[in-house]
Amino acid sequence: MARGPGPGGGIRRRPLRLGPLRLEVAMRKLAAFLGLVGLLSLGLAQSAQEILDRVEKNLSTPWQATVQGRIQGPGGEEELLARVYALPQARLFRVEFLKPGSLEGNFTVITEKEVWNYLYLTNQLVISPREKAKIQGLGFAPQGLGDLKALSEQVDLRLEGEVRLPEGVAWKLVGRSKENQGFAAMELYILKADPRPLRFVFLDEKGKVLADLKVVEFKRTNLTEAQLKRYPKDAQVVRR
Question: Which Gene3D superfamilies is this protein grouped with (predicted)?
């Protein structure tokens, strides 16, 4: 209700006061709004599968990258350096090993149904069913290094949150292996601004790090199936 003219000749009104009930309702609405803002800040990605779908869409054209880091080899901790080449639409990937010395010259080709492991020292191409394949001397299945769709079939991943890495803000996915893949659990870091893997951490049952690998020198490029499937013509082909 008006009280009469104020100092400036205008109408002076009562200050607005909210009762306890109205104040509670207002606070709930504010909390809901802030929650919505929080969801938007996550890019509306509320599950690991949504994030992996974004990665698959983003990496639908040929690409290559370098994987580097530390692994637990037969003789202890070793440096790993490898190049990854990908033809995602053909579900075709190639991993060429430069380090450690025990893997130098070896390469792995991952097809939709098989994994080809080329052993430089014996000049053998060992072909195994995809679900059983491991890299000799590496200790865990290689498929996830290039094919996150295959990785999601092996590991129950969930979104743990976001972290800031040198490359930018990344989603952190964690999960446990569904079957014996040579590791018990893993952490996967996905760049948020340009959805693609930045880092893989593989762990054993006790939480010991088996491999901590970073993906660097990523670029999109032109690749062919023939390039990814090439191997020495005099190699002995062994099926297991």
Answer: Lipoprotein localisation LolA/LolB/LppX (2.50.20.10)
Q: DSSP string spanning the chain?
A: ---SB-TTSSB--PPP---HHHHHHHHHHHHHHHHHHHHHHTTT--SHHHHHHHHHHHT-S-EEEEEEEEEEETTEEEEEEEEEEEEGGGTEEEEEEEESTTTTT-EEEE-SSEEEEEETTTTEEEEEEGGG---TTT-S-SGGGT-HHHHHHHEEEEEEEEEEETTEEEEEEEEEESS-SS-SEEEEEEESSS-SEEEEEEE-TT--EEEEEEEEEEEE----HHHHH---TTPEEEE-
How many CB atoms within 10 Å of residue 119? 19
| Predicted confidence (pLDDT) per residue in 89-142, tens digit | 898 999 999 999 988 999 999 998 899 999 999 999 999 987 766 665 555 555
Residue ranges of domains in the chain, CATH in brackets: 48-239 (2.50.20.10)
Closest listed residue to residue 160, CA positions, set 238, 46, 80: 46
